[in-house]
Amino acid sequence: MFLVTGATGTVGRAVVDRLLDEGLPVRAVTRRPESAGLPAGVEVVRADLGDADSLPTALTGVRGIFLSTAGPEIPTHDANLARAAVAAGVEHIVKLSSGRAGDAAATDPIPAWHRAGEDAVRASGVASTMVRPMGFMSNALHWAPSIRESATVRAPFGQGRIAVVDPRDIAAVAVAALADPARHAGQVYTVTGPQALSPGEQTATLAEILGRPLRFEEIAADRARADLLRFGVEPELATAIMALRATALESFTSVVHPTVADVTGRSPRTFQEWALDNRAEFTAAQ
Ligand SMILES: NC(=O)c1ccc[n+]([C@@H]2O[C@H](COP(=O)([O-])OP(=O)(O)OC[C@H]3O[C@@H](n4cnc5c(N)ncnc54)[C@H](OP(=O)(O)O)[C@@H]3O)[C@@H](O)[C@H]2O)c1
Predict the structure, then answer these.
(1) Tens-place pLDDT, residues 51-68
(2) To the nearest 5 percent, what fractions of the chain are helix, strand and coil?
């Protein structure tokens, strides 16, 4: 049995789908099973990574875990899960981390939270694989309302290029690791897409796919942070996200890594492919 945390989130859901496609047994963790919307064939369990007492039942009979956590609770939640994994005799944990977690010079909160989480997982003694994406293609979904309303993409740090990756390719790497711990335990995978893109270049691709002109408008970091707060992001996390976004101006975010092809045997999807598959999100009335 494979356990997926964050199963209702972007990458966790893609991991659930991939495990099902591979015919592997899946148990999904959510705090709200009644609204999880997970596909048939998934065993859904209610658990909260902040509540250690809720974890043992979820972990019974589990061989491998996909561990997805988010925000300031990452270190605590990763440590809770790792402790419960030891007690349950789990063989392998694949942790969704951050592209910069291995960079000791990266002192802004998100890589630091993930570094502490990775340390907790390693310290547990359970075999582990770290999956460190640089940036998700699906972050472009945040632009959908302004594209629909005013054919405009607004984003800060317009000169920055990130080698964004399709969440389905992150999931493919994670599932390959879960299915073959002998090959992947102990590995640290930086995961990127095939090309580094600026927000302006992503806007041009979206315009091509949608068949209508779109305008890119660079906005100040303060305005982008205010937008996050308006979307309901907690102030501490909003500050952390903006610190991470600023690093898009540094050159390492644009480095393309061969991981997806090396691990899965197939090329990572392009942003154009992602945009085509998610076209409806930018056109349908929501
Ligand atoms: N976005 C990027 O470009 C990027 C790049 C690199 C790394 N990352 C990392 O990716 C992670 C986020 O992944 P994502 O975007 O796939 O997640 P997400 O869509 O934000 O989903 C969050 C998930 O966490 C679950 N969750 C939250 N609190 C929980 C708790 N107390 N107990 C159990 N489950 C809980 C939620 O499940 P329920 O609500 O169903 O309980 C939900 O499924 C973060 O660690 C981020 O640092 C993101």
Answers:
(1) 999 999 999 999 999 999
(2) 50, 15, 35
